[in-house]
Design brief:
5 helices
Length: 154
């Protein structure tokens, strides 16, 4: 069982940066003028989603600065459980706000909450031990969004 969990986490850490790039690239293609806006149903983010997105962006920026420009280990310590706060907040928002669907906008917000972990894949430093909690939290929020989308009347 431990081997399966280890392999899953290893593959996730190695593929996560590419998944983020694909997600962000598709977001820009859909949102850009003359893009694929006719094909995708989009909505504006609500305030808590905007806050989580900007917090994820700033946290990613701070982690990049620490990984590549300093030799300190404050934000990127091996036991950095505080990196789970944004994914947990996104899960809480997904559970609490039943009016937020599991659409591409919500998934992009969730991707930004996990973005600080993507920087570890590019830096060569080991990801924090708490990555499993963020992955489980992210997957749970995605499942809740999909479940709500399936139950929503068309």
């Amino acid at each position: 069982m431990e081997t399966v969990v280890f392999i899953t986490l290893f593959v996730f850490v190695k593929l996560f940066p590419w998944l983020i790039l694909i997600t962000v690239g598709s977001y820009w293609m859909v949102r850009s003028r003359g893009g694929f806006t006719r094909l995708a149903v989009t909505r504006d983010s609500v305030l808590p989603e905007k806050i989580l997105t900007w917090a994820g962006k700033w946290l990613t920026f701070l982690v990049i600065l620490e990984l590549f420009l300093t030799h300190k280990d404050r934000l990127t310590a091996p036991e950095a459980y505080w990196l789970n706060l944004l994914p947990l907040a996104w899960l809480g928002l997904s559970v609490y706000r039943k009016d937020i669907p599991g659409d591409s906008t919500a998934n992009i917000v969730g991707s930004w909450t996990l973005m600080p972990y993507a920087t570890f894949a590019f830096s060569g430093k080991d990801a924090p031990d708490s990555i499993w909690l963020s992955v489980v939290t992210f997957a749970t929020a995605i499942c809740i969004g999909i479940w709500r989308e399936l139950k929503r009347p068309t």
